Amino acid sequence: MLFVILATDKDNGSAIRATTRAAHLSYLEGAGERLKLAGPLRDDADKPIGSMIVIDAASQTAARLFAENDPMPRPGFSSRCRSPPLWR
């Protein structure tokens, strides 16, 4: 089943994003075929304000674990992280 992982940056998101980007991208690449879509969310000025990942996971728990194991530190970086199922 497909799940959407949405995270919204806090005020210091850009600085944290810059220091963890390489490890974050490597983690996403490691998901292989399970990763369906990923990228930053941007505001009208093209500034990153969060991220979205679409992952094929066996359950919502598995999708949450994928998000929690991401090197991009969600607590302190993200004000909200959700993983609702995506219906095709």
Automatic annotation (TrEMBL):
Pfam families in UniProt: YCII
Annotated region (Disordered) at: 69-88
Organism's domain of life? Bacteria
Q: Fetch the Gene3D superfamilies from UniProt.
A: Dimeric alpha+beta barrel (3.30.70.1060)
Ranges of residues in domain YCII-related: 1-77
InterPro entries referenced in this protein's UniProt entry, alphabetically: Dimeric_a/b-barrel (IPR011008), YCII (IPR005545)
Q: Which family does it belong to?
A: Belongs to the YciI family.
Protein name (record): YCII-related domain-containing protein
| Organism expressing this protein natively | Iodidimonas nitroreducens
